């Protein structure tokens, strides 16, 4: 007897699960229903996690946008403050010059 036939016979005899009858129809239907539920449940969980990820991304972008707006507003206030100080110094120097000119004219 060839060696491969011997192994084939041994494998066939040792695996009794291949020779067992199929499960009853009610058990197969229950498994089928469980499979449908499991697939649908996984799909819903996937959609929920995708929605949460999208919300996280959107909130991060909105937070960054708010931070940028806040930084721009702070920078704008700083520029406005610097501009106001510069204008005040210019006005003070003009006022000092006018006062000096007026005091020279009144003395002489």
Automatic annotation (TrEMBL):
InterPro entries: Glucagon_GIP_secretin_VIP (IPR000532), VIP/GHRH-like (IPR046963)
Keyword Secreted among record annotations: yes
Any one Pfam family match given in the protein's UniProt record, by short name: Hormone_2
Keywords: Secreted, Signal
Sample GO molecular function, one term: growth hormone-releasing hormone receptor binding
Occurrences of domain Glucagon / GIP / secretin / VIP family (ranges): 32-54
Signal peptide: 1-19
GO cellular component, one term: perikaryon
GO biological process, one term: regulation of protein localization
Localization terms from the record: Secreted
Origin superkingdom: Eukaryota
Role noted for this protein: GRF is released by the hypothalamus and acts on the adenohypophyse to stimulate the secretion of growth hormone.
Family under the similarity heading: Belongs to the glucagon family.
Protein name: Somatoliberin
Species whose genome carries this gene: Gorilla gorilla gorilla
Gene that this polypeptide is encoded by: GHRH
